[in-house]
């Protein structure tokens, strides 16, 4: 039985049939989550006889890094993790002036079919488990610990739609929140969704005050349905209604992500439509110039067009920020590294 991903309570239950004292669960959890132990022999505060007994019945199975890329400026590191069944997913470390942020994936592949995204090119293979999601952040924490640093924030914005893997995603966030893991505050977590309305409503009542980010990318149903098929199931009115409920329930401002694509959604008209759509919302807009994906044939707007779009929103009293671009030289957009290996037959 693989114990990586278990809570202390679950560990106690797993150890009980073997007559192992309950207090040992906390020692094991600290060893595998805070000290980077990948075998029981490495948990040296356990008796040797207990380590041997544990090894007979349990494993500490973590994903392995099969590829890593470093940006030229050293601010971004991208890892490709391989799981026990050979499936892969990407994790990105981003060093900001305000701290270290980790972007984690929640699925191997993605079924959403967004026209601008690399993650969905090969479809969805499977959901990642609670342990596989948490392991991405824990692995980065192990790396940062060597230089006296820590994971400060987590963004659930990697490959996959997190609200289509709700239980495992929330379970991973709850695990990472525990003091014996990372002790990460919920306010340091941002989850991004393409607009899965039932998931947003469920998350609002979950009782964990994480920040919600919604991938909007278009101001009208016609355009959004064209570039984001999920809009045909959950149209804009339903998404905005769920977002308002989330903001009211959690008292947290919702962020709308808007990828700017040349000659698709980057005009003044679209900016005006977006401002009208969001008027009165407790929300802000995060503008993201597209990180081009070769297979998609979609392009980044000019700097003038980007500034004009932002100015149009601000003139209409919509808070709009421009996301700092990081890791473009190492293909840090979701799914690009995984796709390269899939296409190479690796």
What is the topological layout?
Elements: H1 8-15, H2 23-33, H3 48-57, E1 64-70, E2 76-82, E3 88-96, E4 99-103, E5 107-109, E6 124-127, H4 130-145, E7 153-156, H5 166-177, E8 189-193, H6 197-204, E9 211-215, H7 221-227, H8 236-250, E10 254-260, H9 268-278, E11 283-289, H10 303-315, E12 320-322, H11 336-343
Parallel strand pairs: 4-7, 7-8, 8-9, 9-10, 10-11, 11-12
Antiparallel strand pairs: 1-2, 2-3, 3-4, 5-6
Protein described:
It is a single chain. 34% of the residues lie in helices and 19% in strands. It is built from eleven helices and twelve strands. It has helices spanning 8-15, 23-33, 48-57, 130-145, 166-177, 197-204, 221-227, 236-250, 268-278, 303-315, 336-343, and strands at 64-70, 76-82, 88-96, 99-103, 107-109, 124-127, 153-156, 189-193, 211-215, 254-260, 283-289, 320-322. The strands form two sheets. A ten-stranded mixed β-sheet has the order 1-2-3-4-7-8-9-10-11-12. A two-stranded antiparallel sheet has the order 5-6. The chain is elongated, with a radius of gyration of 21 Å.
Q: Tell me about the largest β-sheet.
A: 10 strands, mixed
Structural class: alpha/beta
Low-confidence stretches: none
Query: Span between N and C termini?
Result: 28 Å
Task: Name the overall outline.
Answer: elongated
Average residue pLDDT? 92
Q: What would a concise description of this structure say?
A:
The chain is an alpha/beta fold and 346 residues long. 34% of the residues lie in helices and 19% in strands.
